[in-house]
Each structure stands twice: as structure tokens, then as C-alpha cells.
Amino acid sequence: MRGLKYLLFISIAVVMRSLPFGEGWGGVHAQQDAQYSQYMFNQLAINPAFAGSRERISSALVYRNQWTAVAGAPRTASFSFQMPVQKKKIGAGAEIVSDHIGPKSLNAILLSYAYRVPVGKGKLSFGLRMGLFNYAFDWAKMDYKDKSDLYNVGARDSKFTGTGDFGFYYYTRTFYWGAGVTHLNRGKIVAMGNDTASKQAIHFFMPVGKAFQAGNTVINPTILVKGTSGSTAEIDLNLNVLLKEKVWVGVSARSGYGFVFLTQYQINDHFKAGYSYDYGINKIGVAGKGSHEIMLGYDLNMRGGKMVMPRYL
Q1: Which of 166, 105, 108, 165 has the alpha carbon at shortest distance from 139?
Q2: Which residue ranges of the chain lie beneath pLDDT 70?
Q3: Number of structural domains, the chain?
Q4: Residue 189 CB neighbours (<10 A)
Q5: pTM for this prediction
Q6: Which domain does 26 fall in, by range?
Q7: Residue 66 falls within a domain, yes or no?
Q8: Three-state secondary structure call for residue 228
Q9: 45, 308, 8: which is closest to 173 by C-alpha?
């Protein structure tokens, strides 16, 4: 147990060292990873240590259309799969992500590995993720005022680069806390045309959630702290309510942006469907006229029968 506590301390130190604050980041970076309003339904997207923690075979399909009134705004589609293996001490996960914004497109294949050990009333998981990203820029979609600009040639360029991510995750039946850090290797994304290079920005995610059950109702407040290297951290405050183990309804307040309204319906013991609507009150949110996100999930209980886990939204 002493060795485990030491390992956890080292892991937290590694994550905290990667927090997106301070100097030495080589400039300010915008968020590069796709953003999900329904992150609490599929935390594998933000933390590889989540793999296998649902104690079942679990998959999720997500489509997000952000700022629908803005031409070239982000559109994201992803598919994830995860399951516990080897007497449930190990979790495995895989993700396919396609993200488009303006002339840039991103496609990625990610593989996650998590090792889980019992701690107190729950389990502590340490996760690693490796993956391959393809960044492509279609300059034909850009219309420059300066026709002599070297970028305004209608060419298409692409770059493959890898990623290395790390996370830890502690969970019980009604509580979770974890942290994930992506792109620790800071893979290069070559800027097109002038041979200068940029790098992947380190992203940090720390979700915390607690479920309170009263009869057939579950109240689940959550907090997500997230940030990108060289930028100010953001906080999502979320409150979801589960009614009769069938319908989730919730609202989130996102710092510096606005609000998110979401719902999820448990169709049967295996299928669920969720929807969220982002309502921004800052300048881009008002101009974008809202964002839509749809999620479809399928769970297969490896033990048979129905399993209720209130902490999972």
C-alpha cells in the first residue's frame, strides 16, 4: 500500500507539472483536441485511465456540430470502445476521431491501456494512450485577399504525428476523480508553405463527480477543470438528475462561454441516446447560434443481468 501511495503521488506530480500554466510553453495555444459537452458519458475521450472502469463492454458514437451559424466551424465525429480484461485488472480502449474546422481536418486512431488496483471502497487506475494523428490543410478552401500570398495556391498538405497521453482515475460506485494529460510528447504539426513547425499543445482534464441517491432519483453534480498549455484554465460546473433509472436531464455552466443543456434516455439495458445543446453568451457563442451534440451508447454486461452505476452519467 505504501508503494501504491508513492506511485499515486508521483502520478499526480507528473499531471500537475503538465498543467497549462506558467512559462516555458513556447507561446499561447488554442485548444486543438475536440471538445465534448457530454464528456461525463464517455470519459475515455479525456482520460485513458478510464478504460475498463465501466466494468462492461462499452461503446459510444458521438457527433458534434459546433457554432452552426459560422461557416467552417468545428464538426467532430468519434467512436470509442472499451472493456475490462484479464480478471478485470486491466482495461483496454480504442478510439477513432475525425475533426474538421475550416480548411483543417484531423483524423486519429488511439489505443488506451489501463491497470487497475483495489483501493479502499473503489479502484485506482493508471492509464497510457498511444495514437496516430493525421493533420491535413486544404488551402483551396481559403480565399486570401492577397492573391500573391504563398498559401493561396489551392494545395493540400498533410502531416502524420504520434501522441503519448497519461492519466489516473479513482472511482467507487458513487464517486470519481481523475486527471488526464494529452500530447505529452508534443508531436510536431508542420506549418505549410514556409517550412516552419508548430507542435501539439498539451491538454489537461480533471473531472470530479459524486452521486447522491434518493429513492428512484439520482443527483449527480460534477466539475471539470480543463486547459491547454499556455492558456487560462476553464471550468465546467454540471448538475445532472437521473429519474427512475431512465432519463437524465442536466445543465452545465462553462466559464467564459455560457451554458449547456443536456438529456439522455436509457432505451433498454444496452442502448442509450443523449443530446446536448450549447448556448453561448460570449461573442462567438452569440454569433454561432448554438452547438448540437448527439451521443449513442451501447453497453454489454459481461456478467449478465442489469448493472446500475449511479456515478456514470
Answers
A1: 105
A2: 1-32, 141-155, 190-197, 285, 302-313
A3: 1
A4: 19
A5: 0.81
A6: 2-211
A7: yes
A8: strand
A9: 308
